[in-house]
Amino acid sequence: MSEEKQQYLREQIVDQGYDVEACSGFLISQRPDLGDDLDLWDMESLAVVQQEQIEEKIEYLPIECQKCSINELSDGSQSVKITKYEKQSAGFFKSSYVNFKIETSPIGWIVQRRYSDFEWLRCSLLKLFPGYIIPPIHKKRTRNFEEGYLTKRQIFLERFLNNLMDTFELRSNLLLKVFLSCDSQSEFNNFQQSINNSNNIENVHHIRNKDGLLILQQSQQQDQYIHLTNEFFQSQELQFKKIRTLSKKLKQTQLDNALVVYNIGEAFSNMYNSVNKLNMILPMGQYKPVIETYINLNNMMITWGNILNTQVEQTEGFFNSFFKYQQHYALSVKQFYQKRNNLASELDRYKQKLHYKKEKLFEQADPTKWEMDSTKAYNKNQLLEDKKLAFQLMCEQETRYENKQQQMMNYLNCQIFNESQAYFRIQCKQLVQQFILFTQQQAVNISENHILWADVMVNLRSCKVS
Asked: How confident is the model over 54-109, as pLDDT tens digits?
């Protein structure tokens, strides 16, 4: 057998956990003329058949769930924008707060929401949509009412809402509709309380999606996909963090450069003051063009410094602020994976504990103590002879709970694939949109700067040098 085939079989069959004998039998069933003699198989045919075996091993388990209700947001034609924020005084005995004005167009909804309302919305979505990555919101650290901080929070919260609008199930939910449309504070508070009193979704039949049907796919590749994508998102979060660190460094460099340019301008201003003072003392020998030159050079450096300061603002908006959100989004993805991993660990412990209990009960050979469904009749001899059947029937309530948790586990495994694909789609869309705007802004900068530098050149040429 060639070294290439050996490596392929090792990587694609042995390392992936496939049964070697089963693979051999599958080869024979597909090509009896070649059998399992791998020397007769070419690499292309071997790869094709191996892929067919993988696909054949995938199981699809359809399960009915709740169908999403269609509302005004479902078709995705509405856009959401936070137009401004307003500081509100709550009175002598209460703390001040900030209201964010949210406009949904073209439907025309306008509401005021506090940061705590955004927190409530996100926590409620996490509770009611366990299989979805819920976008992040700007973390609340201190009661900071500075304009710069609130502007950043406004941008962050708007991105959060628009990310929700990218997913059919989330934008079709009553939670988001009420959040964006209910302009009565008392009615909104009552709605919040009703959601707070609801339970977490722990049964796949209570999940909501577009079709009202879950297709739970089980395959040997799932664990590998989950493991590799989990590593990818951890790396992604670190890279976003790196971009933010470098963006801050770039921003500081631009600030430092602007300060240096302004200082050079200050030097020209000092030269102007010195010459002007000299001209005032000495009535003879004055040379007025040098005064105009120093003034124009000072103005030139101010223009240059202002251009650099504009770049500082753009670095903050296009890089630091944007990738801060992306970093937090990657953290939300990691939290989603962690939720799945926690359930997997809990389910594994529960299975082991229940299996041990069933082994002990089976050893006792007394079906009356097996905690089976009391409404059904059983053949004692059959149960004692068929261990597999006995394990399915004993500890009826605990087995039902195990099956329910296994279904939720299968659902989360499938959603990891669906949500990671949605993440790539949304991120690609956001990156393209963001840096189209960035390049457009650079083109505007070039045009505006051309005019500014042209004016500086005209002023310098106006200096009459004899």
From this structure: 554 556 678 899 999 999 999 999 999 999 999 887 665 567 889 999 999 999 99
What is the distance between the alpha carbons of residues 69 and 82, in angstroms, rounded to a whole number?
A: 26
Tokens 């959601």 sit on residue = 195
Q: Residue 248 has what pLDDT? A: 95
**d(C-alpha 275, C-alpha 286), whole Å:** 9
Q: Is the pTM of this model over 0.70?
A: yes
Q: What stretch of H or E contains 346?
A: helix 322-364
Length, in residues, of the chain: 466
* CA atoms 455, 456, 461, 466: torsion sign: positive
Q: Grade residue 431 by pLDDT with cuts at 50, 70 and 90.
A: very high
Please tell me the distance from the alpha carbon of residue 424 to that of residue 376, in angstroms, as a whole number: 51
For residue 84, the 8-state DSSP code is: E
pLDDT digits (tens, 9 = 90+) for 315-336: 999 999 999 999 999 999 999 9
Expressed in angstroms, the distance from the first to the final Cα of the chain is 91
Beta carbons within 8 Å of 164's beta carbon, 6+ residues apart: 125, 134, 135, 170, 171, 176
CB 157 within 8 A of CB 138: yes
Distances (CA, A) of 128 to 51, 121, 169, 170, 388: 37, 11, 11, 10, 36
Query: What was the pLDDT predicted at 52?
Result: 58
Q: How far is CA 79 from each of CA 132, 165, 185, 353, 402, rounded to the nearest angstrom?
A: 21, 8, 22, 51, 43
Across 249-272, b (16+ Cβ under 10 Å) vs e yields ebbeebeebbeebbebbeebbebb
Q: What is the CA radius of gyration of the chain?
A: 34
Say if residues 131 and 202 touch (Cβ distance below 8 Å): no
Alpha-carbon distance of 89 to 97, in angstroms, equals 7
Pairing of strands 109-114, 97-105: antiparallel
Nearest residue to 149 (alpha-carbon basis) of 160, 135, 138: 138
**CA gap 323, 237 in Å, rounded:** 10
For position 83, what pLDDT does the model report?
96
| Amino acid making up residue 127 | K
Tokens of 231: 């590593």
Query: What single-letter amino acid sits at 185?
Result: Q
Please write the tens of the pLDDT for every residue from 214-228.
888 766 678 888 989
pLDDT grade, residue 14 (50/70/90)? Answer: low
Helix (H), strand (E) at residue 270: helix 222-281
Which DSSP letter does residue 212 get? S
